[in-house]
Specification:
By secondary structure, this protein is an alpha/beta fold. Helix content is 33%, strand content 13%. It contains 6 helices and 6 strands, in the order ββααβαβαβαβα.
Length: 239
Amino acid sequence: MTSSEALPDLCEDDGSTRMPVRTVLCFGDSNTHGTRAMRFMGDRRRLPKNERWPWVMAAALGADWEVIAEGHPGRTAVFDDPIEGVHKNGLRSLHALLESHRPIDLVVVMLGTNDLKARFGASANDIASGLGRLAREICRCDSGPEDGAPQVILAAPVPVQEVGTFEQDFAGASGKSRDLATHLEQRARDLNVGFVDLSKVAQVDLVDGIHLDAAGHAAIGKALGEVIKAMQIRPPAVS
């Protein structure tokens, strides 16, 4: 199973004229991967594809959008994980993914949850700064239309609860996670990129306090679909 999943083409080519497709890359962690609330460590169950938020968002956007789900369980924004491995660092993989999927019209960054783990000792402000670093890298790249940069949405993740399987891993995280949206909104404003606070539309599954249930995925997918439609991103020119 790979972490890179392109949604199926919702408009089959029947030889008729088609609208140019716009592309959105969803750069996230296990909540983009579709991991179910974990009953025990190593529980790798996933929600069905059509229940994961990128697929819900794709349905809301319609057939002239391609949605690419890049959800890597355990992914941080900028931290090398001393236990799970340096490959969990989102900054290390970001440019490879931007280049492999270009041209990309929009990148939705939904990270920050794993950065809350006690072993990193990071404040909400530090985590927001790491997410801002990712946004700057995207804004400086040439993986958008006509060798420009994609647009960016920084999505503040749903706050965690210190319960269940990950209670010790995320000790002290619940308060910081509630503060993260305020700091991240300021980073988005400074960088002139999009922002959405997902705490306003969903909450974590209390089985593990980290992951989302199907209702949470549905709410996030619909909310992000509405945000993206309001951005009125132009389709690429017909070649």
